[in-house]
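Reminder to self: C-alpha cells first, then the designed residues, so the page reads top to bottom the way the pipeline ran.
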C-alpha cells in the first residue's frame, strides 16, 4: 500500500492535531464503553463508586505512550481498553469483599496479564520469531485477521440500528448510512489531500448533524421516532455550572485501590491469577494477528523491526500502566489499524499526538460529554468501514497463496467457518474468544497438513495470468 505519510513522516502541526482527533474518535467509543459495561456487570456493588470512562481514556493514552517507547516509535497503533478482559475484570469485583479490594484487584490482575507478555517477550528475544512465522504463516494469519474484522461486524450493524434517544431504527440507519457515505466520498473523491486524510472526522460530524436535525424536529413535533441523540448526555455537566463542568480530575483506579491493598487475601490473588493469566495468552494470539495485519499495511515486518519482543513488552507494560490509572488492561486496537489503512497515514507522530490528546481530554469535561453523546448509529456507520478494512486486509494476505492446494483450502476454511460461526469455548470463568478458537484450529490444521505436497505460493501460470500485459 502506498502511504501518504510513512512511519517517520511528521505532518504539519495543524494537520497533526486533526489527524490525532480522528484517531481518538476511532478508538474512543470502545475505550469508554468498557468501564461502563463493568459498572453494569457489578451494579449492585458499584453503587458507591463506579469506574470512570475518563480514567480509562487517560490510561489508554498513557499505555499507548509506553507502547511507543518500547517499540522505538516504529509501530503506529493506538492501545485502548481490551474487551477480552471483561470477564476477568468482573471477576475481580465479584471475588472482592469490598469495592476498594476490587479496584486493587484490577491493578493486580493487569500485572498478571502484563507479566505473561513479558515472559513471552523474553522467550522471543532469545528464541527469535522464526518459530512464530512457522507456527502462524500467512495461510493461518490471513484468515484470522479477516475473522477479527468479521467478528466485529455484528457490533457495527447493531450500533447502526440503535438510536440512544429511543428513535426509530430506520432513522438510526439513515444517520449511520449518511456517516458511512460521507466517509467514503471524502476518502475516494476528496480533491484535497487533507480531506482524504480525515474522512472519519468529516463523516462523524455529518452523521451527528443529520442526527441532531432529526432529534430537534422530533422534540419540536413531539415525535419520539425521530429522536436519535440523547442531548442530556451533552448538557449534564452544565446543569449546575461550576469549574468541574469544564475541567474535572478523573477518579483514577489507584486512588480507590490504595485502601484495599491491606485486605487482599492469598485466595483472592489466586482468583485473579486464574481470571487474568489464561486470557492474556488468548490476547497474545490476537496481538500477533494485529501486528501481522499492520505489517502488511505499512509493508514493514514489525515482528522483525522493532521486533515482536518489543511490541509484546510495549503491550504488556502499557496494559499495566493503563490499568493503574483506568482499571482496564489495554490492547492494540483494530479500529486504529483500520484508520491507518483507510487514511494511508502511518505517521507515528499521529499516534503520539492522539495519546497525548487522550490524556488531556480526559480532564476536559465537554469533550468527553460530546463523545458520549455521539449516537451509536453514527459510530456504527464509521465502524462498517473500519471493521471491513480489517477483514479485507486479511484477505489480501491470502491473495498470493495457492488456493488450488487442498492444504491451504482446508486451513483457510476451518478458520473462516469457526470464526464466522462464532465458536467459543469456556473453562469456568475463562472464555476462549472466537478469534482465538479460530486461530488455534487453524494452527492445528496447518501443523497436521504441513507435509502436504502443494506449496503455499500461487502457481507460476496463475501469477502470469494476473500480471499486467506489459510484464508478460
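Designed residues (472 positions):
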Amino acid at each position: 500500500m502506498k502511504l501518504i505519510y510513512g512511519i517517520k513522516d511528521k505532518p504539519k502541526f495543524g494537520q497533526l492535531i486533526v489527524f490525532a482527533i480522528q484517531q481518538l474518535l476511532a478508538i474512543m467509543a470502545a475505550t469508554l464503553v468498557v468501564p461502563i459495561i463493568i459498572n453494569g456487570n457489578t451494579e449492585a456493588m458499584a453503587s458507591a463508586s463506579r469506574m470512570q470512562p475518563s480514567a480509562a481514556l487517560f490510561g489508554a493514552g498513557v499505555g499507548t505512550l509506553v507502547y511507543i517507547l518500547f517499540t522505538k516509535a516504529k509501530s503506529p497503533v493506538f492501545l485502548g481498553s481490551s474487551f477480552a478482559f471483561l470477564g476477568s475484570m468482573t471477576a475481580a469485583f465479584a471475588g472482592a469483599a469490598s469495592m476498594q479490594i476490587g479496584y486493587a484487584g484490577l491493578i493486580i490482575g493487569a500485572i498478571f496479564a502484563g507479566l505473561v507478555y513479558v515472559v513471552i517477550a523474553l522467550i522471543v528475544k532469545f528464541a527469535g520469531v522464526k518459530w512464530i512465522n512457522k507456527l502462524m504463516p500467512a495461510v493461518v494469519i490471513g484468515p484470522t485477521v479477516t475473522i477479527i474484522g468479521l467478528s466485529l461486524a455484528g457490533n457495527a450493524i447493531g450500533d447502526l440500528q440503535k438510536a440512544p434517544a429511543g428513535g426509530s431504527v430506520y432513522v438510526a440507519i439513515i444517520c449511520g448510512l449518511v456517516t458511512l457515505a460521507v466517509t467514503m466520498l471524502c476518502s475516494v473523491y476528496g480533491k484535497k489531500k487533507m480531506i482524504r486524510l480525515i474522512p472519519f472526522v468529516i463523516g462523524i460530524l455529518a452523521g451527528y448533524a443529520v442526527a441532531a436535525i432529526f432529534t430537534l424536529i422530533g422534540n419540536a413535533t413531539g415525535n419520539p421516532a425521530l429522536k436519535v441523540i440523547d442531548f442530556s448526555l451533552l448538557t449534564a455537566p452544565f446543569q449546575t455550572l461550576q469549574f468541574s463542568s469544564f475541567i474535572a480530575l478523573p477518579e483514577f483506579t489507584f486512588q480507590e485501590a490504595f485502601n484495599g491493598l491491606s485486605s487482599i487475601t492469598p485466595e483472592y490473588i489466586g482468583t485473579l491469577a486464574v481470571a487474568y493469566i489464561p486470557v492474556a495468552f488468548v490476547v497474545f494470539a490476537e496481538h500477533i494477528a494485529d501486528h501481522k495485519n499492520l505489517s502488511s499495511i505499512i509493508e514493514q515486518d514489525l515482528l522483525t523491526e522493532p521486533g515482536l519482543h518489543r511490541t509484546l513488552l510495549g503491550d504488556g507494560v502499557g496494559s499495566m500502566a493503563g490499568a493503574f490509572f483506568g482499571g482496564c488492561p489495554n490492547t492494540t486496537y483494530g479500529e486504529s489499524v483500520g484508520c491507518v489503512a483507510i487514511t494511508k497515514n502511518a505517521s507515528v507522530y499521529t499516534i503520539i499526538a492522539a495519546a497525548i490528546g487522550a490524556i488531556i481530554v480526559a480532564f476536559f469535561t465537554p469533550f468527553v460529554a460530546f463523545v458520549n453523546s455521539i449516537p451509536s448509529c453514527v459510530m456504527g456507520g464509521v465502524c462498517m468501514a473500519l471493521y471491513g478494512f480489517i477483514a479485507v486486509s486479511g484477505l489480501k494476505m491470502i491473495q498470493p497463496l495457492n488456493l488450488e492446494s487442498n492444504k491451504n483450502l482446508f486451513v483457510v476454511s476451518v478458520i473462516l467457518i469457526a470464526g464466522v460461526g462464532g465458536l467459543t469455548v469456556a473453562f469456568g470463568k475463562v472464555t476462549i474468544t472466537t478469534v482465538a478458537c479460530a486461530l488455534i484450529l487453524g494452527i492445528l490444521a496447518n501443523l497436521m497438513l504441513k507435509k502436504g505436497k502443494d506449496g503455499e505460493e500461487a502457481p507460476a501460470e496463475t501469477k502470469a495470468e494476473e500480471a499486467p500485459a506489459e510484464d508478460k
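The first helix runs from residue 13 to 41.
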